[in-house]
Amino acid sequence: MIGYILRRLAQLLPVLLIASIGIWGMIYAVPGDPVAVIVGENATPEQVQAVRERLGLDRPVHAQYLAWLGNALQGDLGLSIQNREPVRDLIAQRIPATVQLGLAATVVGLLLGVPVAVLSALRPGSWIDRSLSGWSALALGVPTFWLGILLILLFAVHLRWLPAASTYVSFLESPGQAVANLLLPALTLGVYVSGIFARFLRASLLGELRADYVRTARSKGLRERDVVGRHVMRNALLPFVTIVGLMMANFIGGTVVTESVFTYPGLGRLLIQAIGTRDYPLIQGCILFILVVFVLINLLVDVLYAYIDPRINYD
Amino acid sequence: MNAAHTREVVRRVLGHRGALLSVLYLGLMILASLLVGWALPLDPLDQDYVNMLKGPSAAHWFGTDELGRDVLARVVYGARTSLVTAAGAVAIAAAVGVPIGMVAGYYGGWRDAVLMRLVDVLLSLPGILFAMAMIAVLGRSQVAALVAVGITGVPTFARITRAQVLSLRQRDFVTAVEALGGSAAYNMFRTVLPNAWSPILVQVVILSSMAILIEASLAFLGLGIPPPTPSWGEMLRTGKSYLHDSPTYAIFPGLVLTFTILSLDTLGRTLARVLEDRHEAAEPAPEGARP
User: Fold this and answer.
1) Which contacts (CB < 8 Å, 24+ apart) does range B220-223 have?
2) Closest CA of chain B from A297, distance in Å
3) What's the gap in Å between the CA of B235 and the closest CA on chain A?
4) Residue A250: its chain B contacts at CB < 8 A?
5) Is the pTM of this model over 0.90?
6) Hey, which residues does B64 pair with through a beta bridge?
7) Which residue, A291, A313, B104, B154, is the most exposed by fewest CB within 10 angstroms?
8) Which of A18, A146, A252 sits opposite B121 (nearest CB)?
């Protein structure tokens, strides 16, 4: 098992290295002097000098990259142009908000997606199945930001039940306020996620329902509820773990868009603001951080899958 | 694929009600975006200061925006932006991705390892974020949007093509061409590719819907093609600021966008099913098997 993890890590290393070169190279690809790109227009001569030393522009290119990488590995991502704060701190401040939104959306996605999948898999081809498949197609096809706008129109503008713009309130400190602020963004992202859940879980359930052990369980007189609940669900949930991995890409992208719809102060909005103000150290930091998290989650999913499914031989 | 097969595939795709509706909708949109400007009397820039942020009326079917411009006209011109971006981005993705997958699958070995690692790099960030990073470097422009959206489609084409080539590589008609002295390039593009096209075609349709969605998302985030070019994402971005004054402003562009995405998705999935059936029913004689 440890060997498997190490091998997967070894495969990831070149990918991470090339990606990091790309992110580092961003400021050199932007037209203009890299120092000016990093310090911005209103920098003092001291700041210019500090960045010049930090970049080490007199040194060879590979040394410049290694210095940048070394700093990044130690968590030093430089200073934001906009407010001269360490990029690391700016990112760290936004993480709880994005994590809370992500968890809430996953809960919504499961609450909507799993019943849809089970109901439609139990009666494949029926009108229930067809209309629920329509739901998945709709959930996946409606752009996240438009669904967000529609929800704002209904619940904030028309009914005035919920705020149109959401702020971050920690669920642990003030659950009521947190739910009021999270409901619309979580629903927006959760509907999309439920579409993915439903489509994959249905396919996986259908595959399991055809298996021999299901016929055995039925022929020994088990109630359908027990056949599905005790036998099929457990096996069908195995590939579900990989869906989480597949979902992550869309999920992170969806978070960025959703945060923008509701002006929710998460990581995605930080990145959009950074791009808008051409705050390159902050852009680099955000992208590097998201990249590392994304790659690590995918690795974790692979490892978890190999771990919980004994049929997978990871040697 | 010869003409008879093409007709058969088209007939069976159109036999599916959802796919037929999708084709009709997409056809209508393509037609409107071609005709607007000379045969359709719609002006996306004409400002009517008396009627700003109005709901649907006989004069303005989709209402007017914050400058009194006709929303329907802007939606139709937005269709042009979306379709051009989708076509361009998918072309870029295929032009880069298909040769990568072809070489990786055909030669295997170190070329495969290197090329596929590069493709993995493109997959190390969610597509929309990759596109955002590209925009951060390139700035906002029509070309930047095309390239940024196009790059996100490269991995799909590379992987699909590679998988196809791997399954065809050891088939007799390919090794025969090799044995008869056909060059690698000839073999790849004239023997293997014509037999690998059906999953690639399916991806062209599905990635078009992805490209339209990513372009609209970028525009919604304020990172798309700069104004005054009308774009559905940009309209939704502005419309969101006027939800209290004119709710329909943010509804119509989103409705058209959603129908477009759903249509392309339905068409792609129907096409995939039809082409799979065809392969299962009867494996047709491979084409280009003569060197």
Assistant:
1) B220/A143, B220/A145, B220/A257, B220/A260, B221/A256, B221/A257, B221/A260, B221/A272, B221/B132, B222/A272, B222/A276, B223/A272, B223/A275, B223/B132, B223/B135, B223/B140
2) 11
3) 11
4) 126
5) no
6) B70
7) A313
8) A18
